[in-house]
Amino acid sequence: MPTSNRRVPLSVLELAPRSQGMTPRDALAASTQLAQEVDRLGYHRLWVAEHHGSEAFMASATSLLLGHLAQHTERIRLGSGGVMLPNHSPLMVAEYYGTLATLYGDRFDLGLGRAPGTDPMTAAALARGSGQLNDFAADVMGLQAYLGDPRPDARVRAIPGEGTHVPLWMLGSSTGGAQVAAALGLPFSFASHFAPDQIREAFLVYRDRFNPDAETAQVDRPTTMAGVNVLVAPTQEEADYLFTSAQLMAIRIRSGQPAPIDPPVQDLSEVVPAQLMPLAQAHQAVRMVGTPDVVVERLEEFAAEHELDELIVTTYTYDPQMRRRSYRLLAEAWGMESAPAGAAEVGARA
Questions:
Q1: What's the pLDDT tens digit per position in 186-223?
Q2: Does domain 9-345 fall into CATH 3.40.50.150?
């Protein structure tokens, strides 16, 4: 097992989850508390994923939420994980994230995806673009140009935005995103936390076709991250029990029964019909649930197996306090360098 100082960086994927009995305001307050905690603990990044029309996730206005989190954190990088670019004008995305970079400095990443992040009717209401690979790649290139150095001949400019050079990441759950990331020379994050089937093929395509000489290249070698469902507790029994909330969430998503996150249950089979049980396994095949030592060992094995440069983990529990505890136990076992308690809050107020 690698020593702690050789472990890859750990980051957090956040969707501002809402549990049964919580208001949207409650959920956003819990998300803010979590951001402050993982900032203090020493996680590398916190990314917010765009979702629309969801009963469970309050992360629709991603850039607004990131601006709020920037005010309440100090050192953690923040970003989108991601912005679903076909839902937006590249110019408007450049203006939003350029404004964030202008206000808060070099703390932001722009993770870009093609998925709708919602159901078909809501996607249509968003006036969504095609999402086809060629159109998507062109939008990414346009977005990067808006964030690049000012051009005297440019007739359309992102102000604020130009000159901020907000780093771009490509997100994907298939070989399509990998192809775009490789062709444009961008770092690539694979959504193995909910769609792991093509992880090997996607990374193979990305590494084989990576073009460091592309005009849009931001890294000089293939740079990879992957998502993992994680839940850490003092005992395996408690971790398995708490994780039933995440399993119920996955079943609701896959079976079209939207609702806020359910309380955990002792026996999943008593509340879920047998024909729906495989949905949780398919949605969360890449998961590490257990005690700190067990989860750390499995994360290290996963990172080594796929030759990852970084891991991004996501945790869902009914009780927000248990979610923060999970991230704290993982940070301690991973050997992160935490800041003194209250440091982030002090920095945010300064």
A1: 999 999 988 888 999 999 999 999 999 999 999 999 99
A2: no
